């Protein structure tokens, strides 16, 4: 099975973005990560391609999946026959936002410790 071409527009630290990364790792799928926090040009590119400002957005074989969770990425990959279902465990939630404490730490500019 050929590996799909994937570009993931993710935040540096975000529960949803961690979930997308975890699903792509679970299926050993290579992808180009575009950090929309570290590089504002990537945010602009994401917004132009997706037509909206929310992230994560994942482009798979030219199809943009806007404002998507890791669970939704996994469901799309399976539905499109790009991978086979797997029960392999992942270290982080694949459909979860950051906690209130994580959001507060980001706003304060502090270091964030994520629990797996």
Structural summary, described in words:
Helix content is 36%, strand content 14%. The chain is of the alpha+beta class and 116 residues long. The protein has a 4-stranded mixed β-sheet, with helices on both faces. α1 links the parallel β1 and β2.
Question: How would you summarize the topology of this molecule?
Answer:
Blueprint: E1 6-10, H1 15-26, E2 32-35, H2 40-50, E3 57-60, E4 63-65, H3 70-79, H4 100-108
Q: Trace the largest sheet across and list its strands.
A: 2-1-3-4
Helix-strand category: alpha+beta
Q: Could you tell me the number of beta strands?
A: 4
- Overall geometry: globular
The run of helices and strands is EHEHEEHH
Integer-rounded radius of gyration: 14 Å
User: Strand portion, in percent?
Assistant: 5-15%
The end-to-end span amounts to 30 Å
User: Helicity, in percent?
Assistant: 25-40%
Mean pLDDT: 90
In this structure, how is the largest beta sheet organized?
A: 4 strands, mixed
Number of helices: 4
Unreliable residue stretches: 111-116
Give a brief outline of the structure:
The protein is α+β, with helices and mostly antiparallel strands. It is built from four helices and four strands.
Name the features:
116 residues, alpha+beta, 4 helices
